[in-house]
C-alpha cells in the first residue's frame, strides 16, 4: 500500500468548496483521465456509482463508493478497479478567508499488484497536483460556485 498527498488553498469558504467537491457529476471537469461520473444517487456515506476513465485503451469503467462523509469537512471515495483498490481522501481545513484542501491518494493491490502500487502512487502524485490546481481554478469561479449552490439547495 502506498499513499501520496497534494494540497491546494482555495479562496472560498469550506461550505462552498464542499458543495463543489461533492457534486460528483462535475468531477470529470477537473479530474484528469475521467470522462464521466455517474452517481447512484445523492452523495452520502455508502452511496456509490461509476467513473468512466479515458486513460488507457479501451476506456474503462471503475466502480466507486463514498466510504466516509462529513459535510463541509471530509469526503472519502474508494475505487475498485480489477484487483486494485484506490482511495481518495479529501479533507477541508478552514483558513482566514480560504479553505485548504488536502487530498490523500492510497493505492493498494493484491498479489503481484502490490509490487506496482508504489509506482502507481508516485505517478498519481503529479496528476493530483494538476487535478487540484484545476479544481482551485474552477472552484474560485463565481458562476461555477453559484451553480453548485443551486444544485445543493
Question: What is the element layout, followed by pairings?
Answer:
Elements: E1 2-10, H1 14-21, H2 27-30, E2 34-39, E3 48-53, E4 60-70, E5 74-81, E6 84-94, E7 99-109, H3 113-139, H4 142-152
Antiparallel strand pairs: 1-7, 2-3, 3-4, 4-5, 5-6, 6-7
Please tag this protein with its features.
single chain, 153 residues, alpha+beta, Alpha-D-Glucose-1,6-Bisphosphate, Chain A, domain 4, 41% strand, globular
Describe this entry's structure for a reader.
The chain is globular. Strands 1-7-6-5-4-3-2 form a 7-stranded antiparallel sheet. It has a single domain, classed as Alpha-D-Glucose-1,6-Bisphosphate, Chain A, domain 4. Helix 1 packs across helix 4. Helices cover 33% and strands 41% of the residues. The longest helix is centred in the C-terminal third of the chain and has 27 residues, at 113-139. The protein is α+β, with helices and mostly antiparallel strands and 153 residues long. The mean pLDDT is 81.
Strand content: 35-45%
Radius of gyration: 15 Å
Q: What is the number of strand segments?
A: 7
Helix/strand order: EHHEEEEEEHH
* Number of individual domains: 1
Question: Largest sheet, described in full?
Answer: 7 strands, antiparallel
Strand numbers in spatial order across the main sheet: 1-7-6-5-4-3-2
Number of helices: 4
First-last Cα distance: 38 Å
Q: Unreliable runs, pLDDT <50, ≥5 residues?
A: none
* Shape by Cα distribution: globular
CATH superfamily: START domain
Helix amount, in percent? 25-40%
CATH third-level topology: Alpha-D-Glucose-1,6-Bisphosphate, Chain A, domain 4
